[in-house]
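Re: the request from the purification team.
They wanted to know what the chain is likely to look like in 3D before they choose a buffer screen. I agreed to run a prediction and write the result into the notebook, where they can find it.
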Amino acid sequence: MQTIASASTVVSGGTTYYGPLFKWVRITPATEQSIRTDVDNSGLPWNNNAPLYFDGAHLPNPSLIVPPMIGPNPNPPATAKQAFEITALAVLPNGSQKTVQYVVAAQTFNLNFPSALTLSGKNMAFSGPNSNVYYADGTDGTGNPPAVPGCTPNSPSKPAIGVTEPQGGTGNLTSVIAGLPRPDHYTGAGLPTPSVSDINTINLSPQLQTPASLNQLVKDISLVATVVTPTTGIAQGSDLPASSVNSPATIVVNGNLNLSSYVGYGLLVVTGNFSYNGNSGWKGIVLVVGDGTTTFTGLGGGNQEFDGAIFVASIKDTSGNLCPNWATSVSTSPEAVETAFTTIAAGSTGPSQF
C-alpha cells in the first residue's frame, strides 16, 4: 500500500510543519450505528439507514439530528448539513500506527452584508482618503478578482457604505458623508453619490446585530478556522497561510494584524487593530470585530484592492471587556485618517464576490 504525504503540512512564519504520513483516509456518511450513539434519544436500536445531520439552529443547542425521512430520502431542515465520519490511519515517525476518527459537517454562517463596507457602533468619527484612484462600489462583480468557480455575480447593487444608528437619528450617516473628500467615488444601489445608507434602509444578519452575537460569531468561526493567530504581539501577513481563489482560508487574528503587502482569499477576522497599505488586499470577507479599529500605514500608491465585503464593529470597552450595548465609538486614532471604514482599497469592490 502506498504511503502518502499528509495534507496537513503547514507553512507559517517561514517554518514548515510536517504532518504524519498516512496509509489511508476513509470518508463515510455518519449514522447512529456508525458512531454508536442514540442521537435522537429514541431508545430504539441504533439507526443505520438515516444519515445524520448537524443543525446549527437546533434548540436548545446546535447538535446532531436524525432527520425525518420521506421514503428512503432524508428531509432535513434547511439549516442542517449532512455529517460525515472521517477515519484515518497514520504512521508516526517512530513507526507506530494510530487511527483517528472525526465526525464533521459543513458549517455555514449565513452572513449577508447590506453594503460593500458596513460600520456598526456609536459616534462614528470618519475621515475618508483623498486619493483619485480610490473608489468604493457596491455593485456585485466589480473590481478585478479572479472569477470564482461556479459563481455568477447577480446580486442587486448595494450601497458602497452602510452604517447603523444604535442611538437613533442619522448622526452616523451625517458623520460618514461629511468625512468623504471625494463623495463621487462612492457608488451603488442606484443612490446619488456618495452612496451611503443607514439602518433605516439596510438590514443586518442576526449574527451582526449586537455585541454579544458578534462575539459569539467570532468564537464560532475560530472553531473552524484554518489558523488562529497570534496569542501575543502583532500578526504579520507572512504569518498567514497561503490562500487562493480555489483554496480560500478562514483566518482569525486574536489581536492586531499588519497585512502589509499581502493579498489573501476567504474569510478574515481581526479582533484588534487592522493595518494595511496600498499593496494590501483581500478577496472575500473581512470582519474587524472587537476593537473595531484600523490604520492605513502608507501615504498612497499601490495597486491592490478589497473585493467582497468589509464589516467593522467596536464591541469592547477600553479595558477589553465586552460591551452590553454598542461601544461609544468605532473611530481610529487621529493619525490613521484612512481607516477600515474606507478600506475597499485602490480600485472598486462588490459586496459578494465570495
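For the purification team: The CA atoms of residues 124 and 174 lie 10 Å apart.
Please add any questions underneath this entry.
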